[in-house]
């Protein structure tokens, strides 16, 4: 019995970030629409006409970059494309994770499906089949300047289509030729324009942004629920989340975060009124809507920007079949993605900054009114003392990583390409920051649950379920034990989206 496979129909115009994530992580297949294939065929016919008429067109009958003024003879047009791939496949460093590679492939397929790049139908279908049959090229992470596209990473992707390079198939590292043979495919030969069409684009940086964005949205929702648990543990004041307050400073993200915090705390007997214990909470509790809301608004901006890029033509030159124009420009320049990645890095790192401050309030008896470091027998036991150290070290690491890569540029190609985006570096750093934020939130999650165990009274609608989910896999800390396994389990709960959807 054949197992049913999920399919995303790709037409070049409607690919969502959720689709990219599904292809990257769930082995969802790609199916090109007939409309997209018709556009691809029309674009290819335009390339073949230009070659037959010996027109001077960048990257088709000329060299690349500084060699754009060098004419290529007819008999060498195909060899030019193969040489392009081999020479540009010079990345360094550890390979990208399979999920990033699959996202890159999906995004490049969608860009080519728009029909502005002149690739042959059979070449595009080869890339589709690689993705669908689980052939994942080994792509080194270092080497892209993020302008002229992600040339080196995408060249490594294309090598496997030619039977060169290396790929993972079912977790086994094989030569490109062996990988193709393993799944019943044969190497292809690139024709005019095709090598350039395959590697001129922002897909390495955009792939990482798609995954980081999706994970960041999960982190934001998780952070608010964990923060609500901390509010209860510290007997905080939810009046600070009153809609009246946020209507007079009407940032959408702030209003939404305040609304969600009240939902999570609905029915709680652990919170207090203004003046009952204190008049005001510290900023890390009271200003949650303002801080998280700013992150929420940033997420929305970046989500819109990246979705737009997912469905953009980032090739050069671009072929317009309706007018017959071939225009050399700079749509491959990664500046929009570079800014988006750096902006999101700052916004998502702030979730960890404020989380670590809440963890400090939970473990510090001078601030919490709870047993020191949340242990019943302090002195003999250290409890959560060092978990706060860990959170502090991670947020400090993030502060270094948040330095924007997009403010840097360095000339290349003999100064022909004299301004670059460094967007791929921005995206790589962003993924590390997202992982770090998850760890810091996991620490607060554990500490908040432990602190709740020292109190009494009903928890809120959302916080009760979050607490119960944690306690199903991690028991209360009565005496010192290895904390690392507990932290990893809490981290996995967050990564799985368990908390993000607990109140849906």
From TrEMBL:
One annotated Gene Ontology cellular component of this protein: cytoplasm
Protein name (Swiss-Prot/TrEMBL): Histidine ammonia-lyase
GO MF terms, alphabetically ordered: histidine ammonia-lyase activity
Modifications after synthesis and translation: Contains an active site 4-methylidene-imidazol-5-one (MIO), which is formed autocatalytically by cyclization and dehydration of residues Ala-Ser-Gly.
NCBIfam families in alphabetical order: hutH (TIGR01225), PRK09367.1 (NF006871)
Protein species of origin: Brevibacillus formosus
Pfam families named among the record's database cross-references: Lyase_aromatic
Catalytic activity: L-histidine = trans-urocanate + NH4(+)
Cell location: Cytoplasm
Top-level EC class as recorded in UniProt: lyase
EC number(s) from the headed UniProt entry: 4.3.1.3
Annotated keywords: Cytoplasm, Histidine metabolism, Lyase
Residues spanning the signal sequence: none
Similarity comment text for this entry: Belongs to the PAL/histidase family.
Pathway connected to this protein: Amino-acid degradation; L-histidine degradation into L-glutamate; N-formimidoyl-L-glutamate from L-histidine: step 1/3
Main location: cytoplasm
Any GO BP: L-histidine catabolic process to glutamate and formamide
Modified positions (2,3-didehydroalanine (Ser)) in chain numbering: 148
